[in-house]
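Database export, one record per block. Field names are fixed; values are copied verbatim from the stored entry.
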Amino acid sequence: MDERFASGLSALHPMGAYLEALHHTGYYYTFIGIAQIIAAILLLIPRTVTLGALLYFPIIINICILSFAVRFEGSYISAPLMALANLYILVWNYDKLKYILPLKRVPDFGIVNKPKKYSNKFPFLFFSGVISTFILIISISFFGHDVMPRNSLSDCKKQFINTKNENAGNAFCDCIHINGKPLDDCLDEFEKAKK
């Protein structure tokens, strides 16, 4: 539709700058959008879910790594969770995928065989793992970095109110949102100002 993703995000923000540059690539940007829509449709149809997961996996891994690289809180939690959900779908469909993997002998690992009859017993171990992973990802997103660029100047500065690094933090926020410098440069300046 010729509209930049996250159009409300400033082009000075690291993610905004990336999305602005990506938007200017022309039909490549449209291609990515169409690929995401096709993957979504394929994921919704039970017969094509494996193909949809294969198509969507590199897309969501790219989004996940990009979110961590620029500390973009818009998909900082959701992207890793979607990548894990997609990985779960791929593992669930391993019996279909094992024939296209470049392995000489196809192992079954004993854990991916589908049972002949499913149990009605609640899978406590599986859901414990899912909840633990969910908590780990949220913990990393909240406590993994001592400073985040946030999506706006005011939100960025709020994280430093009444802290010992308030002046260094405000300079960091200005570096990102007003000066438009790269994230790594602003982080280096922040670390120097903290001392």
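Remark 1: The chain has a mean pLDDT of 85.
Remark 2: Residues 49-70 form the longest helix (22 residues).
End of record.
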